[in-house]
Amino acid sequence: xxxxxxxxxxxxxxxxxxxxxxxxxxxxxxxxxxxxxxxxxxxxxxxxxxxxxxxxxxxxxxxxxxxxxxxxxxxxxxxxxxxxxxxxxxxxxxxxxxxxxxxxxxxxxxxxxxxxxxxxxxxxxxxxxxxxxxxxxxxxxxxxxxxxxxxxxxxxxxxxxxxxxxxxxxxx
Length: 172
Hints:
Layout: E1 6-15, E2 18-26, E3 36-43, H1 54-68, E4 73-79, H2 92-99, E5 106-110, E6 122-124, E7 133-138, H3 142-150, H4 160-170
Helix pairs in contact: 1-2
């Protein structure tokens, strides 16, 4: 019997003091259809504090993860960074990894560069874009994480499922 391979990708959109978190669940890195969508909207969200974004988004992800369950998750993709500097100060991905008992690899995919980190990130150019995505990871080798995101379906800068995730998150 083949074990189910499960990848989760999360994103959260903030509006009117609320947070809408969406998770796309899929089984193959190059998948572009036949995925599951999980969603939850939470009220009374923490205010954004520069450098402490995780305080706002982590509770949203954990709440939705509680509904999905943690069985057989091979990796989680977050919109942001795993580390915030070269001393491995945790960003959203690092804190999520800790909260999940260091059992599930986390891959951070950020659309904007964060200058304080140089060592543990890799710039990924996809399609014809001259603007890279920035990949960070914990619990999985950075090169392996980079190759997985690079292999995701879609001919443009942002992989098809991550673009769909962003679109779904902003649908109110």
